[in-house]
Amino acid sequence: MLKNLCASVASRLSLRPTTVNDALLATLHHFSGESRNPAVANIGLTPDQYVQRSLSTPRFEATLASTALKAEGREADARLNWEAFVQREQEAARHAHEAIPKTALLADSDAIHRIGRQLNLCDECTDQLVSGVVLTLALGYPYRTADQQHLSLTDLLAQVTTKELTELLRHAAQSATGRTEEAAATLRRLRRAAR
Predict the structure, then answer these.
(1) Cα–Cα distance between 108 and 105 in angstroms, integer?
(2) pLDDT tens per residue, range 49-65
(3) Among residues 173, 136, 169, 129, which one has the least CA distance to residue 153?
(4) Is the pTM higher than 0.85?
(5) Nearest C-alpha neighbor of 59 from the set 125, 5, 123
(6) N or C: which end of the chain has fewer CB within 10 A?
C-alpha cells in the first residue's frame, strides 16, 4: 500500500522516488508522534492502530506530498498542495453539514446563535466558528471511537449535543482570540467528557 502511495505521489508531482521515500519516513515519524497523544488512548486506539488507520487518510497523503515537495525545495508547491487538501476537506465537511437532518442541532442556526450569544459571541462570529468546528470534527472523523465506526460523517455531525457544541465553540473562540491557557483547559474538559 505504501509503495503504491509513494509511486503515485512521485508520479503525480514529478518528484524523485528517493525524495518521496525519505518523506515517507518523516511522515510516519510525524504520525507516530501524534499517536502518543493521550486523546488517542481515550478513543480506544493503540499508537500502532492510530498510525495504521492514518495511512489510508487523505491527510496522510497530503502530509507526505507536502513533505516531499519541501524536501525538493518546492516550498510554494508544498503550500499549494496543502491548501488544496484543506479546501477539499472543507468542501466535504460543508456537504456533510448540509446533509444532516433539519432536526439536528448543527442544522438549527437559531439554536447555534443562542449558544453563541451565551458565550458572548455575535451571530456572525458564531457562524464563522461553527464552520471551523465542523471542519475540526470532519478532520477527526477517521479517528472516531469504535462504537462510532459505522457512522458517516453526516451521522456524526447530527449527533453533536448542545453541551458538546457549547464546549467546542468555547474552545474555538478562546483559540481564535489567543487565550491559549483557557483553550487548553477547555480541550482537556472535552477530552475527559469523551472518555
Answers:
(1) 5
(2) 999 989 988 999 999 99
(3) 136
(4) no
(5) 5
(6) N
Q: How far apart are CA 105 and CA 114, in angstroms?
A: 11
Contacts of 44 (CB under 8 A, 6+ apart): 145, 146
CA–CA gap between residue 9 and residue 16 (Å, rounded)? 10
Rounded Cα distance, 188 and 21, in Å: 36
- On whether the CB atoms of residues 147 and 182 are closer than 8 A, the answer is no
Give, as one character, the DSSP assignment of residue 100.
S
Cα angle 51, 195, 158 (rounded to 5 degrees) comes to 85
Stated as kind and residue range, the H or E segment containing 71 is: helix 58-71
DSSP string, 109-145: HHHHHHHHHHTT--HHHHHHHHHHHHHHHHHHGGG--
Per the CB < 8 A criterion, the answer to whether 143 and 43 are in contact is: yes
Cα dihedral 129→134→137→142 (10° resolution):
-150
What is the maximum alpha-carbon separation in the chain? 54
**Whether the Cβ atoms of residue 160 and residue 97 lie closer than 8 Å to each other:** no
DSSP, res 38: H
**Relative orientation angle of helices 47-54 and 17-35, to the nearest 10 degrees:** 140
